[in-house]
Amino acid sequence: MSPALFAAEAAVACLLFSAAVWASLTRDPMFWYQDFPPAVRERLKALPEYAGRIPELRRTAARKVSVALALTALLAAVALASGARDFAGALGWCFALWSVVNLWDALVLDTLWFCWGRGVRIPGTEDLEDAYLDVRPHWLGFLAGEAIGLAVSAASAAAVAALSL
């Protein structure tokens, strides 16, 4: 479990995550509807061109649970491949990797690209610049992501510990 290996895994994870976010935003920005600022979500609900395209909250929640389960398995596999053999080692590795990607998401993707870089502006909401520039929801999301990451990492570490018996 070397620092160089961790740095390489973190870099690959950030690049893969960025590619997935970019591809989904390019394909259909409504995929990220729940992550848009409240004023933008309200405007989208009122615009007729988005009628029927706004995802239901329960579908979004189900998707996030499915992703969390998949990430639990992926993080366990990465931790095992990286040399983790006990709960504490796997927990540290998994949570550190999760935290790097979560920080990348909040700082680079959300703050620098989405908010300040104007990387995403949904047609019909361009005048809501103040809402798009507000970074607070993204950093609150970062904190929530850390809590979720701790739970996912603990589940991954438990899997590593069980598989290493």
Notes on the structure:
- This is DUF1772 domain-containing protein.
- Keywords: Membrane, Transmembrane, Transmembrane helix.
- There is one protein chain.
- With 165 residues, the protein is an all-alpha fold.
- It has one domain.
- Helices cover 74% and strands 0% of the residues.
- The protein contains six helices and no strands.
- The protein is elongated.
- The chain starts with a helix and ends with a helix.
Principal-axes geometry comes out as: elongated
Number of strands: 0
How many domains make up the coordinates?
A: 1
End-to-end Cα distance, whole Å, is 19 Å
Largest sheet: none
Notable characteristics:
165 residues, mainly alpha, 6 helices
Give a quick rundown of the structure.
This protein is mainly α. It has helices spanning 3-27, 38-46, 57-81, 87-116, 129-133, 136-163.
SSE order and pairing:
Elements: H1 3-27, H2 38-46, H3 57-81, H4 87-116, H5 129-133, H6 136-163
Helix pairs in contact: 1-4, 3-4, 3-6, 4-6
Keywords: Membrane, Transmembrane, Transmembrane helix
Organism: Enorma phocaeensis
Protein name: DUF1772 domain-containing protein
